[in-house]
Amino acid sequence: MLGNHHNNVRRAHRGAVVLIAFLAIPKSKLSPPVVSQTVDVSCLPANREHDNSVAFRKFKRQLFHKSLSRILDSFKPVMTTPEVIIWADGEFRRTIYGLGTYIADYPEQALLACIVQGWCPNNLPSIRRCYEHTEALVESLSLGILWDEYGIVGDVVPFTNDFPRADIHEMLSPDILHQLIKGTFKDHLVEWVGGFLAVEHGKAHSEAILADIDRRIAAVPPFTGLRRFPEGRGFKQWTGDDSKALMKVYLPAIDGLLPFEIVHAIRAFLEFCYLVRRNVHTPDSLDQLQKALEDFHKYRVFFKEEGVDTSGFSLPRQHSLRHYLESIWAYGAPNGLCSSITESKHIKAVKEPYRRSNRFQALGQMLVTNQRLDKISASHADFVERGMLPKSPISMYPLFY
Asked: Pfam families, from UniProt (predicted)?
């Protein structure tokens, strides 16, 4: 049975979500080791000499898929041979398993689905992508036609081909963080507002209006659940939490300063976004979701009519909004299938171990730190299970919990 795991579930049930992660490889050039020197291969930086080679790029894509296939290979027997297990209702049933949803941002979705950047991993203009259709195209058309007319990278085999009943186009989940919060809202709508003001009022007057918007944002009084922005939107590096906090105060900050159509476009998008983030959906909430999407598409056209650069209309992040409804019918509330889950693990598994290192050839030190903390976490869980330590709602070492 497929279910969504939220933060409260992961806290209540240790190991409810098991993550597979790849650490980033340093981008500096490879320095040849001294012959008499013992070298830890995990500390060697990557050689960038062949980055622009077509053959090497293909090799990296296929290596990624082969690695995933190898990692998941041990699950293959239970995907074909039924196993008798007890279900939640207390009944025993013969059960087979399958691969579930894959959480990824758009660049990784394109890599997983073996499609060209800029194309949708879920559908073509007139038909939904599926394993059978893609295989038929690959067998009958040249690589050039596959690339140009169908957006398919035909010389890379997806890892799902090695598993029964697995279709990568059905497995990709919506990504609220990158598609809605950081994508459509922050990178598109907020930027389009600045573009509209520049086109309509000129640089000097538009900067004055934006400063007024910032003053309104900064004037938000302290209140539970609201974050204050003392300098408005004026900080260098945005995070997902920054964008989520800004969404709560942005609409009243622009009301009265921008045209009716822009305010309604942003209101409709925020309605869509907050409906999507519900933990439970009903047919009524899905009808509201569809209505909000239609309103957003209706009012966003105003930006294009006023001469704002709106190339984002057809970009994957805004196009993905069309797939949320069918994804909710297939997998349930997408609030538990968001890349913010893996983003939080990235901090624990990469950023914090890096800060603990001496910053010189840090990768090997990071791996050792992760291994040690993982073993401490496992020992702590074992001691609690044996009654040697008291149970605590918060783990001492929550690296992989």
From this structure: Plavaka
